[in-house]
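Retro notes - structure team

What went well: the batch runner handled both jobs without manual restarts.
What didn't: labels got mixed up in the shared folder, which is why I'm recording both outputs here explicitly, each with its sequence directly above its tokens.

Job 1
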Amino acid sequence: MTEWIPDELGEGYQQHTIPLGADPDGEGQVEATLVRRVPAEAYESAVLYVHGFSDYFFQRELAEFFAERGFAFYALDLRKCGRSRREGQTGHYVSDLALYDAELDQALAIIREETGGKPVVLSAHSTGGLVLALWLDRLNKQPGGSTGAGIAGLVLNSPWFDLQGAAWMRTVGTKAIAAVARVKPKSMIKLPHTDAYGSSLHVSAHGEWDFNTAFKPLEGFPVSYGWLTAIRRAHAKLHKGLDVGVPSLVLRSTRTRFARTYNEDVATADAVLDVKQIARWSGCLGDQVTVVPIEGAKHDVFISREEPRKAAYAAVDDWLRIKQLVS
């Protein structure tokens, strides 16, 4: 039996700790945290959601959306992220994104057991989209493939499919970062300070969402050479082409507006990633990819302002029905 305790989200939400043993990256014992919406209705399928960098699961509205359509909802805070980070651990640090396979495999097994083997739709935001895509590609190479493992579909929200910024950062810059990572993987890259995106979200600034800023700082977590090298290796694998084995939906904003401090443009555009890169590389997921741009959406389309948020949910609803993943 899986042991569940009350979650910080309050009534209707519980969490379960997944022990993962000694950290391959040398930061003690690691664990992940599986959160579930306590089922109040009969369910036909399940959803597993994975957050992005400098993020964790707090989006109750997303959980309620899926629950209303007959899904048992679960979310995973990955090792060293959100609820799962322990004292002395470098926030979000992994040297290889494949290390996340351990908690993803265990989370999927728990969900399948609890739901009696019901099909699972995966959902993820930003870096989580890259993590899930590579995990699914590996899963699809195993006997039975992704569908044999119980996966029915993939919904990605502004997935991080390439390194934003100047072109040289994707060539000589990536090589230089990797060179430093071999010597000082956990040293932090000196980047300009920005809280523009975080400020557009939180109720204490210009947003409408209340979240734990220790888990999701407005300025984000610092970026290490080793972690970014792991990301770039993952990007390279994606760019060669994957086969996740199931239908995929990719949501993104229609435009990018980078800024270091908040302005109104940040509230209606992706202030984190280059949406043209998302559009370019989405086809690398496989043969069944649907891409839907959302006018006025932020980086996380599901915590955008009301109008684009409604449009994003409508797009997911349509896609679920077209793919016969909901009745």
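Job 2
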Amino acid sequence: MAENLQEQLYQRLREGLLAGQFKPGERLKIRDLAAAWGTSPMPVRAALQRLVAEGALEGEPQRSVRVPPMTRERFTQIFQVRMAVEGLAVEAAAARLSAAELETLQGCMRRMDIAIEGRDVQGYLNDNSLFHMTLYRACANPILLRTIETLWLQVGPFFNRLFTEADLSLRLNDFHEDAFKALQAGDGKAARAAIEQDLSYFGQFLLNLLELDNIQARRNG
């Protein structure tokens, strides 16, 4: 029973990181999480320790845990690997997607449009995560999928920054729609190209934000 609870809490934390529910540098307090979820601290601590071991969280003195801060160097390294593996997963998934999975993707896009209009950051990020992970999980390559999920656990908390520019939000769903049309047609290469455009466009935007953060930090320092 305790192992099942720990697994549930681990998956809950994992999904939260994938969907950007926690921000870079945010400290996760065991007692606060335990109180919010109505459980004892022990399974929460065990779930957090698993994520620390995976590199999604980092331990601090006095047994506290936080989401790692994002640096330009770290983001660049993650981005380079994401470009190599996510397009590959999409191309492999194109011929394997079921009608139900395509319906899930379409529902995600519809809700993301609504979230963009309403400036609902978390609503958008939740469905953005579901869209990508539904697509990647259809690739039928567990090693590839695990690599992608590990990368997303590290970069997901930084996705909140996409909503800091009003004009950018107008393009947040464009590449998803291009990928979906290609997937409907069974064109894996076109779907891969659309997802890689998505990664490249928004990846560069986030890299620019990190550079601005560095400039501001130097001025304040």
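One thing worth noting from job 2: The mean pLDDT is 90.
We'll revisit the folder naming next retro.
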